[in-house]
Design brief:
Blueprint lengths: L26 E5 L7 H9 L9 E6 L1 H10 L5 E4 L10 E6 L14 H19 L5 E4 L4 H6 L7 H8 L6 E6 L2 E5 L6 H6 L3 H19 L5 E4 L14 H15 L4 E5 L1 H9 L5 E4 L2 H12 L4 E5 L4 E5 L16 H15 L4
Parallel strand pairs: 1-2, 1-5, 2-4, 3-4, 5-12, 7-10, 8-9, 8-10
Antiparallel strand pairs: 6-7, 6-11, 11-12
Helix pairs in contact: 1-11, 7-8, 9-10
């Protein structure tokens, strides 16, 4: 199902792995992403940033030789060590779960079956470590949808891939950027197809799901705003009928069930209002309605959070950036934010 909220008639497995709360610090597995892109660079930059929390253990999952070469290219003095759950970690060490799944030579800046397969294998390994109780959360560097397909993994992206690996049947893409949290009704679809998904029944399911998942992650009740589809949320029917026919009835039904949800609001202002703290989250009607707002207001600080998985999963708010791969100029700030938020959500408090 292409909508942002995926579901079937089976109950989703919504139990969050609580092992972080039995450790002294949470353990976050960081998948290296597509090695032909900026993944290895931003992971190392994030981990060596001076403001990185000490009360967090990070494990990079990928090819160790690629990471070592990237560290040398960036002139980073890093001590790499193989991940062992019970090992004593020295400050400054970078732990690696080394899959050794790439050759010494491969082409950067392009989609390829080689790096796509490697990137997908990193994700599979991360979920395996989580299932074994060795990780509390996963933060993912960017992959290429085309490359993983070339490598034999037919998924539209991380979200659907992780859902398959964890037997999750109800999930949605969201973005967290400080007080701005946005849940998407649909993800990677042509706009004309996304508009067709703006239906009352679909919205009711997403509102109920978002309320449940956000309360679980944030540990409190939440106020949810709903963005309109049309300019000015249709201005009372002047610019479209979806607000009156589909969106408002869904909101009314959810309010009757006790959910604190309001709207529909004009799309050109509701994200700023949420960013300022008036609401805890906003539901967007389609992909770019959400991502333009998040990136304009918080580029470099936005984090992709998959709601509904039985594990905490975060990611950066950008792609593989093939055009700047290998140049040493990528910004690791979104990767840092993704890693820290993963630890905080798994641990249930700020680091």
């Amino acid at each position: 199902m292409p909508a942002g909220l995926h579901a079937d008639h089976r109950r989703a497995n919504l139990c969050i792995n609580m092992s972080a709360k039995s450790r002294s610090v949470p353990i976050v597995g960081i998948t290296m992403g597509d090695a032909a892109g900026i993944g290895p660079e931003i992971v190392l930059k994030a981990l060596t940033s001076g403001a990185f929390p000490k009360h967090l253990r990070c494990i990079v999952i990928g090819d160790g030789s690629v990471l070592r070469r990237m560290a040398a290219q960036l002139n980073l003095n890093i001590s790499f060590r193989q991940f062992e759950l019970e090992a004593d970690i020295r400050e400054g060490d970078v732990e690696v779960f080394d899959l050794e799944n790439l050759p010494q030579q491969f082409q950067i800046g392009i989609d390829s079956a080689l790096t796509g397969k490697s990137a997908a294998e990193n994700v599979v390994a991360a979920v395996g470590l989580w299932k074994a109780g060795e990780l509390d959360a996963i933060a993912t560097a960017p992959i290429s949808k085309k490359a993983i397909s070339m490598g034999g993994f037919e998924f539209p992206g991380h979200t659907e891939f992780l859902a398959e690996l964890t037997d999750t049947t109800e999930f949605a893409m969201s973005f967290f950027a400080g007080k701005l949290r946005v849940v998407l009704l649909s993800t990677h679809l042509p706009l004309i197809s996304a508009i067709k998904l703006v239906k009352s029944e679909t919205l009711v399911r997403l509102i109920e799901f978002s309320d449940r998942e956000l309360r679980k992650l944030l540990g409190r009740s939440v106020r949810i705003a709903i963005a309109g589809l049309n300019p000015h949320a249709s201005e009372g029917g002047m610019f479209g009928a979806e607000e009156e026919k589909e969106i408002a009835p869904a909101i009314a039904l959810c309010r009757s069930k006790g959910i604190e949800v309001t709207g529909p609001y004009a799309p050109d202002t509701i994200f700023m209002r949420t960013h300022r703290g008036e609401f805890d989250a906003c539901i967007a009607m389609y992909h770019d309605q959400a991502t333009i707002a998040v990136k304009a207001l918080s580029f470099g600080k936005g984090v992709n959070v998959t709601l509904g998985l039985p594990l905490v999963r975060t990611s950066v708010d950008h792609g593989t950036a093939y055009d700047i791969a290998g140049k040493g100029i990528a910004d690791g700030s979104s990767m840092r934010e993704a890693i820290v938020l993963a630890g905080e959500l798994a641990w249930g408090r700020d680091l």
